[in-house]
Specification:
Length: 103
C-alpha cells in the first residue's frame, strides 16, 4: 500500500527468483512513481527512472532486466500516492516474467 507521503517500499523475492523482465500494476488510486531499483542476487543493482504518474488500474510497460533472466533479491519502489477525492491509498502489484533460460 502507498501512503500520501513520499515512500519507499521493498519487495523481497524468495523461492523461484529468476526473471527476465518485470511489470507492475497500480490499483485503488493513482501513484507518482519516481524510480525502481532492482537488486540482483550477485550484488549488482539496476536503477530505472520512471518519473511518471500511473493511473488507477493501469499497468506499466514490460521492463527488461539487465543481462536476461537473472536471480533477483529485491525490488524497491520510490513513489507517492497522488491526491484523490476518496483519499484512497494506491496498491502496487509486481509481476515477473521467466524465459526458462538455464544459467
Amino acid at each position: 500500500m502507498v501512503n500520501f507521503d513520499r515512500e519507499k517500499d521493498e519487495i523481497l523475492i524468495l523461492g523461484a527468483d529468476r526473471f527476465a523482465s518485470i511489470r507492475f500494476k497500480v490499483t485503488d488510486a493513482p501513484v507518482q512513481l519516481i524510480r525502481i531499483e532492482v537488486y540482483y542476487e550477485n550484488g549488482e543493482q539496476q536503477n530505472i527512472d520512471v518519473n511518471a504518474s500511473i493511473s488507477q488500474d493501469k499497468e506499466s510497460k514490460v521492463i527488461d532486466l539487465n543481462g536476461g533472466e537473472r536471480s533477483l533479491k529485491k525490488v524497491v519502489f520510490y513513489y507517492k500516492t497522488l491526491p484523490n477525492s476518496a483519499d484512497k491509498k494506491a496498491q502496487m502489484e509486481l509481476w515477473g516474467m521467466k524465459t526458462n533460460q538455464s544459467e
